[in-house]
Specification:
- It is a single chain.
- Strand 6 and strand 7 form a beta hairpin.
- The strands form 2 sheets. A 4-stranded antiparallel sheet has the order 1-2-3-4, with no helix packed on it. A 3-stranded antiparallel sheet has the order 5-6-7, with no helix packed on it.
- It is mainly beta.
- The protein contains no helices and 7 strands.
Length: 71
């Protein structure tokens, strides 16, 4: 699937079934989620919710909960 920009960072789904959220500036992995099949659909972002399909024949829905790290 093609990467997509969100308010949280860059979302990248891969053929190993991993959806990764990357920091725009550093490219560092901020979060990830694994599913049972390749992610081949575009990720739909609405607010803090993500929707995507995979070859495991499921529509996945995730909610991002963002917590600031103390400095």
């Amino acid at each position: 699937a093609s990467p997509i920009a969100s308010d949280f960072g860059l979302l990248v789904g891969d053929n190993n079934g991993r959806l990764t959220l990357l920091d725009f500036d550093s490219g560092r992995t901020l979060a990830f989620h694994n599913v049972e099949g390749p992610i081949q659909s575009q990720v739909l972002v609405t607010g803090n919710r993500l929707f995507f399909g995979s070859r495991d024949q499921n529509l996945h829905a995730l909610q991002l909960v963002w917590e600031e790290t103390p400095k």
